[in-house]
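Hi R.,

Here's the chain you asked about this morning:
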Amino acid sequence: MREYVASARTVEEAIELGLQELQVSIGDVDVQVVEEGSKGLFGLFGSRPAKVRLTVKEEADPLGDLMAETEKPKKAKKPEKKAEAKASAEPREPKEPKEPRAPKAEKKAEDKAAPEPVRREAKKPAKAPKAEAADQPGEEKPAKKQEQPRQPLPEVKPMEKPEVTMLKAEEITEDSPAGIALAFLKDLTRLMGVEVSIDMGTDAEGNVYGYINGDTLGVLIGRRGETLDAVQYLTSLKVNRDREDYVRVTLDTEGYRARREDTLIRLANRMANRALRTGRKVNLEPMNPYERRIIHYALQPVEGISTHSEGDEPNRHVVITLDK
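And here is the predicted structure, written out as tokens:
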């Protein structure tokens, strides 16, 4: 009858360890828990391992007994090998003067040292063609791409704007597009609690331009001009209601439109440089039609660059690509 006492952190781990040592299954043994074990305080202090005693049943499969018998000498041989290893390790000093072993060690050292320079020589020519192959295409294509980003660096002139004729208060009638826009903006800003003064003007085609001055910073502009664009859109709906010919309405406050146009032109140049440097297309953030038109205008004279718009409103955006 074979027995084995195993210890581990948990009872389950101790049983598994004992089964592996006895080379049997759980059905072939009787399990007796000697000690449950404990984790101790916070798993650090006073912890004790679990211990179990595994006893092989007498009615176990005879094949298991045969396996156990064949494994016994193996277990007995292990310490013999260790003893032999220890014995061979201890008398190294007296065995050193023996002549047959000294040349073997030297031969092994020579055999191990011999292939090292051969491997190094084989690696050097293998790396050389890779470096040459990597340098050859890199000298042609990337060199051209590094020269191209310098082309769009010059600043683009602001977009050409129509000449706007400012209207005096007595020249504005209630039924005219400028009068309708002025009345709507006065009511809207009053409801918003913003005190402003509004100047109106028109161009040669009859389009309306409104300039709002006063306490408007951050209130009528909003994030990236979203509030100003919304007010402009509502004013345009009011002006073009029940009209056959469309009148474009443009609103500005505190010179925001000019500053935004300058920012978009610099953004277009920077994104064009990225497209030329990386050789990949660049997607810009969603913009309204007016801002997208500024991007197209800014990159139109740049060689090697094309622009187009993708997506649906309000997520329509400009895409910068390289000319093939």
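One quick note: Confidence is low (pLDDT under 50) at residues 70-91, 93-100, 102-140, 142-154.

Cheers,
M.
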